[in-house]
Amino acid sequence: MHTTLIAKVAIAKTTRGYDREYFYAVPERLSGRAAAGCGAIVPFGAKNAERSAIILSVHAQEGESFPPKPYTALKLIVSILGDAPMLLDKDIELASRMREKYRCTWFDAFSCMLPPGWARRAGGAKKIKGVKAALPADEIRAAIGALRVNRAQQIRVLERMLANIHWASGGVPARELAADAGVTPSVVDTLIKKGYLARIDLEAGADGAGADSVGAGADTGAAMGAGTGAGASVETSIGANAEISTGADAGFTLTGEQNRALSALTNRSDERKFSETLIYGVTGSGKTEIYIRLVSHIISMGRKAIVLVPEISLTPQMMRMFTGHFGSGIAIFHSRLSELERRAQWALVRSGAAGVALGARSAVFAPFDKLGAIIIDEEHESSYKSEMSPRYHTADIAKMRCESHGALLVYGSATPSVELFYRARRGLCDLLTLKERANRRPLPDVHIADMRDELKSGNRGMFSRRLSNELYNALADEKQAILFLNRRGYSSFLLCHACGYIVSCRDCSVSFTYHRENNRLVCHYCGMTVPMPRQCPLCRSADISGFGAGTEKVEQEVRRLFPECRVLRMDRDTAVGKDAYSRILNAFRDGAADVLIGTQMIAKGHDFPNVTIVGVLAADSILNFADFRATERTFQLLTQVSGRSGRGEAAGRVVIQTYNPDHFSVAAAKEHDYMGFYRQEMTARQALRYPPFMQIGVFVLSGLDDARVYASANALFQALKDESVVGGANGFTILSPARPPHAKIKEMYRWRIILKHRDAGALEFIARRVAESFYSGKKNKGVDLVFDINPFSML
Asked: Is 205 exposed, middle or buried (0-12, 13-18, 19+ CB in 10 A)?
């Protein structure tokens, strides 16, 4: 007699109000295929619209005990997607924990784990979402010129589309177009809604990757090369039958410090229990070599490893090193892969063909079932924190996964986050220290250029005399230089000398940045762009000009001072396209340029042996942010970018230009003194009740109607006070609603409420209680609510 099976499922793409578990009966014809982790098609709602879902669990019906009431007459599952579960039980448990911790929906969490296109029905032709130009090229260009399209990201997408005749007429996968333009897929969706792009269905392989590249056994070498741009050495076949080398012959002799660290890590991994280790090593101390040997050991145990880097720009370099040791058994994950490439990499991991997953933040979800280690390089970087729902920190997800797999979690940094170092010093995390560079070369000599003195002596130029001399000497010796400025564009803002008006974005409470290459003003928050005005929009005076400098202006100045110098610039304006990062970095590494100018994407992790001088312009730019992490970020950036100098045989030098030479973060960076910085920063944080001594919870409310947002913020503030009293929770500090530094972004007015408590769990609990009532309140319609714990930006 057939036993009725009941499946508990989560429905894809539901709103928060409908995000709960639903029960369906499994028809007899599907009883052998329905299992936890499988995709399914189910009838949903009054009209029984077919919706995709993930099966959370399957149970045999036992009288009236399951499913729980009021589920009596159950609908039947229509079909099961695929031949095997896409998620493991551990994955479902992880999604459940994310849903609870980050106040997200089931599918906010599942979307981090599932491959693109997972919900398509099995069988039939494989289709992917594509787009093509909806209007003639001339009409699109006219719309840009007339400011009907006035967002920089949208303009970039349309320009990339029109630059490729085949894409404009025949179509391109939507995700590939977004990745090529360096934007999120939502920008493409907006252009579809506006009528500039048209949605079409494309056959799998329409982007040249080949239909077979989706499968687990596909030869994805071409897709890998295109996705990472790491060069010919990366374009290897990674098929289902690929041999995963353990990289036993690394061809590099470890130092005593490296050997001791590696021994400690392999001993920990042999225990097959969860543990955390911080490798605190100076820049150039050889942490990557330790990672490679550790991963080799993990693979020899029959387990798999994930290696995370903070920037996409670091992926090709790390890929090149790991490929040299492990052959082809490596999968890559980052946001600039096309849909087909992402599906192929996911399949490589799921099939067991890859022993290592390498990439940026999203790689933490690589679907390994025998995970032995997760390594987070440059763990202090803010890019490991997601600013979209779910607002997870990569380290939290890594810890959850390592706990469930009994795996080793390794953090590496020359400038560890003070919260993690505090835990390590208290014995809550193992600590391994590397005090010397692997090549036994000294750390670079750092000189502080006081720009106040430069002004007093009549030097009003962009470069101090010391930096100008160092650049001249490096170029004369045929060495290379890096110039770092964490601000792109040409001028930071546009000022009217007659009335003092600063030209600002109408949709955001921030000033425009002037970009000289296209003679436009751009808002770096919402992307709005307008032509450079010839007169003040307020008083009509022609006496208007730019102030401050960005990387574009630095490039112009270098070319003016050193006409024969070959210059490359790397920022979000130049690094457009999937292979842009590797193209620029490889050119510099190969000696095709003398000077590399860039923002923070050039500041960490890169190894350029011929670089002997690093110049840091405007070291104070981050120091003055209204953020409790500002001093820590300043020290980290200065230390990291300084570490790019002197990594070869020649001695390295660094010039830091600042108006605050006596600030402790600058002084500590000059001496490469992390412990000195740490002690002073911790004293300040304890006095101000900041992490790690207190945990900070931040509610940000936003909406188009400022008065309504403010009213909702006040109501939420009262609810928080009531909840803390009723719940008997002591130790809460709740600050009344206030404007954040950026009071308006993308037309949305913003109000902020800050909470403090020693325990992050207490913050999560009270946030969960008040959020449930907030979302059910009709008065809060049109108001968005975001909650974050210890956010990486307080702006």
From this structure: middle
Neighbours of 252 (CB within 10 A): 12
Rounded to whole angstroms, the Cα distance separating 444 from 592 reads: 24
Cα–Cα–Cα angle for 421, 427, 429, nearest 5°? 60
Non-local (6+) Cβ contacts of 548 within 8 A are: 487, 491, 492, 493
* Residues 121-177: tens digit of each pLDDT: 444 465 678 899 999 988 998 888 888 888 888 988 998 888 887 787 788 888 888
Q: What is the pLDDT of residues 354-390, one digit of tens each?
A: 999 999 999 999 999 999 999 999 999 999 999 888 9
Nearest 5°: the CA angle 291, 292, 293 is 95
Q: Is 540 left (phi over 0), alpha (psi -120 to 50) or beta?
A: left
CB contact at 8 A, 647 and 609: yes
Between helices 174-181 and 185-193, what is the axis angle to 10°?
110
Tell me the per-residue pLDDT of 208-264, one tens digit each, with 9 for 90 and over. Answer: 333 333 232 333 332 322 233 333 232 222 233 333 444 444 457 899 999 999 999
Q: What does residue 642 show for φ and ψ, rounded to 5 degrees? A: -60, -35
Separation of alpha carbons 491 and 36, rounded Å: 55
pTM recorded for the entire structure:
0.85
DSSP-derived secondary structure letter, 116: T
Residue 89's contacts (CB-CB under 8 Å, 6 or more residues apart) are: 36, 37
Residue ranges of the chain with per-residue pLDDT less than 50:
1, 121-124, 206-250, 727-728
Backbone angles phi, psi at 34, to 5 degrees: -75, 125
Q: CA 485, CA 393: separation in Å to the nearest integer?
A: 26
Q: How are beta strands 371-377 and 304-308 bridged, if at all?
A: parallel
Task: Supply the pLDDT for residue 207.
Answer: 42
If DSSP states are collapsed to H, E and C, what string results for 459-508? CCCCCCHHHHHHHHHHHHCCCEEEEECCCCCCECEEEECCCCCECECCCC
Q: What is the largest CA-CA distance in the chain?
A: 96
Q: What's residue 126's pLDDT?
A: 59
H-type alpha helices, 271-329: 287-300, 315-326
Distance CA 358, CA 794 (A): 30
Per-residue DSSP letters for 392-419? -BHHHHHHHHHHHHT-EEEEEESS--HH
Under 8 Å between Cβ of 377 and 261: no
Q: Calculate the CA dihedral of residues 11, 202, 351, 217 and round it to 10 degrees.
A: 160
Q: Are 11 and 78 in contact (CB under 8 A)?
A: no
